[in-house]
């Protein structure tokens, strides 16, 4: 619903100026800037933690976050913000990454928490959450997609560079939705810990995937996928 025609009230069209005024109003609602979305998967964490607060980053996970932060800083981009999942492993990853990007504001959100976005097709035998999870998590993760992944606002003058630190399931679902691929295929994608996925959203709404799960900046012995 971000097409210019969806943002104006056609009933208010001036009968005297007609199409000329309509064109002017449409132009006023058109996006001008490109959004660059960097989706970062959290680093390796302790899988044996019972509660979220116990699932902290491992020593290797902290190293991975340092490498990811260094990589993002080396791109030389002016990042606008870091939005991260409120889960412990994502928050800790964000804190380490942000040390390499001083001055970039951090925002925590429950929308990006890990979950079961939609029943995968084909199904897998090793992962079968309760059906209710798809209804609860799926609605939230879809809300995250609609809230964060869209063309720039018409008022935005310059290109933006935003970082989202979250989870594999969330990123895989967002990528499928953004590229208009069947979202049921999200589980066919695989992401390493600390990896970088780069989406570009043009003013006309077109989306391009520049990198998916990039960890080429990490030494081979630092790469994990837990």
TrEMBL record:
Pfam families: His_Phos_1 (PF00300). The keyword Hydrolase applies. It is an enzyme of class 3 (hydrolase). InterPro entries: His_Pase_superF_clade-1, His_PPase_superfam, Mito_Ser/Thr_phosphatase. GO terms for molecular function: protein serine/threonine phosphatase activity. It is found in: Mitochondrion outer membrane. GO terms for cellular component: mitochondrial outer membrane. GO terms for biological process: positive regulation of mitochondrial fission; programmed cell death. Gene3D superfamilies: Phosphoglycerate mutase-like. Its EC number is 3.1.3.16. Its main location: mitochondrion. Keywords: Hydrolase, Membrane, Mitochondrion, Mitochondrion outer membrane, Necrosis. It catalyses: O-phospho-L-threonyl-[protein] + H2O = L-threonyl-[protein] + phosphate; O-phospho-L-seryl-[protein] + H2O = L-seryl-[protein] + phosphate. The keyword Kinase does not apply. Belongs to the phosphoglycerate mutase family. BPG-dependent PGAM subfamily. PANTHER family: PHOSPHOGLYCERATE MUTASE-RELATED, SERINE_THREONINE-PROTEIN PHOSPHATASE PGAM5, MITOCHONDRIAL. This is Serine/threonine-protein phosphatase PGAM5, mitochondrial. The lineage of its organism: Eukaryota, Metazoa, Chordata, Craniata, Vertebrata. The gene is Pgam5.
């Amino acid at each position: 619903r971000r097409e210019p025609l969806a943002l104006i009230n056609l009933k208010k069209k001036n009968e005297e100026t007609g199409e000329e005024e309509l064109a002017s109003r449409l132009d006023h609602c058109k996006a001008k800037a490109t959004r660059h979305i960097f989706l970062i998967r959290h680093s390796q964490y302790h899988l044996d933690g019972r509660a979220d607060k116990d699932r902290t980053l491992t020593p290797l996970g902290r190293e991975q976050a340092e490498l990811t932060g260094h990589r993002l800083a080396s791109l030389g981009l002016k990042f606008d913000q870091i939005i991260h999942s409120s889960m412990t492993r994502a928050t800790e990853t964000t804190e380490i990454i942000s040390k390499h990007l001083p001055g970039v504001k951090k925002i925590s959100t429950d929308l990006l928490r890990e979950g079961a976005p939609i029943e995968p097709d084909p199904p897998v035998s090793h992962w079968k959450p309760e059906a209710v999870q798809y209804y609860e998590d799926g609605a939230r993760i879809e809300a995250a997609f609609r809230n964060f992944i869209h063309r720039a606002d018409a008022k935005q003058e310059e290109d933006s560079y935003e970082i989202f630190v979250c989870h594999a399931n969330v990123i895989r679902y967002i990528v499928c939705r953004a590229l208009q691929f069947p979202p049921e295929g999200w589980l066919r994608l695989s992401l390493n810990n600390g990896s970088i996925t780069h989406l570009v959203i043009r003013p006309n709404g077109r989306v391009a995937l520049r990198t998916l799960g990039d960890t080429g900046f990490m030494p081979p012995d630092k790469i994990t996928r837990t």
